[in-house]
Amino acid sequence: MSASGTPVDTHEMVLIHRVLRREFGQLPRLFRSAADDRARSKVIGAHAREMLDFLHTHHTGEDELLFPLLRERAVLDPQLMDRMDAQHMQVDDAVRALEAELPAWTASADAAVGERMATRVEATMPTLIAHLAEEEQQLLPIVSVTVTQSEWDALAKHGMSAIPLTRRLVILGHITEEASDAERQRFMQVVPAPARLAYKLIGHRQFTRETTAIRG
Ligand SMILES: [Fe+2]
Fold it and tell me: 117 C-alpha to center of ligand 1: Å?
């Protein structure tokens, strides 16, 4: 709840979740498409690296800056919070396993390793999808009336500051890719004006070029 008593707008997290669903959903196909093709494994490996970092940052932000507030204020069923933590741990185990294999695979394009990573992502998707849905349906409505605007802003800042400056416009492309016009406008309001202009001038083109090469 903001100082004025207005609920905090948490919808930007839904846009972030769309990136995770979409990009992790595609990863198995992308890993397989690079089998024994080292030029392609470099491209897919860099993308997978970026998305693993994005997911990891998203979860650590919630673990450190959001879930403790919700527990402290006892606004949600402790069992739900325990389930959220358990889902994070399960997803993080998969993230760590993928991170361990990714550098060598990026360099080698080894088909068996790529298949193993693809299978691991597929095995984790049901947990990730269920977790994101539960967070959106059960947590966010409570979050919007429980945390202050500055607490919510700290979470967004944590996520943004983890993204290298040179990659922020491309990530912005990912976040707004499936947004409706109204959602895009709403999200862009929290983006600083120079970044909005840079996205218009160069970022969108860079995002489109990159994703076209990645998705094949
Ligand atoms: Fe989330």
Answer: 23
Would residue 110 count as lying in a domain?
yes
pLDDT-derived band at 6, boundaries 50, 70, 90: confident
6: which DSSP letter?
Answer: P
Query: Would you call 207 helix, strand, or coil by DSSP?
Result: helix
Structural domain range at position 108: 11-162
CATH of the domain at 122: 1.20.120.520
C-alpha span between 133 and 138 (Å, rounded): 8
Rounded Cα–Cα distance for residues 188 and 190 (Å): 5
For 29-57, the pLDDT digits (tens) are 999 999 999 999 999 999 999 999 999 99
Alpha carbon of 209 to ligand 1 centroid (Å) = 27
pTM metric for this prediction: 0.95
Compute, in angstroms, the gap from residue 139 CA to the centroid of ligand 1.
Answer: 9
- Ligand 1 centroid distance, CA of 81 (Å): 13
Helix axes 111-134, 78-108, angle to 10 degrees: 160
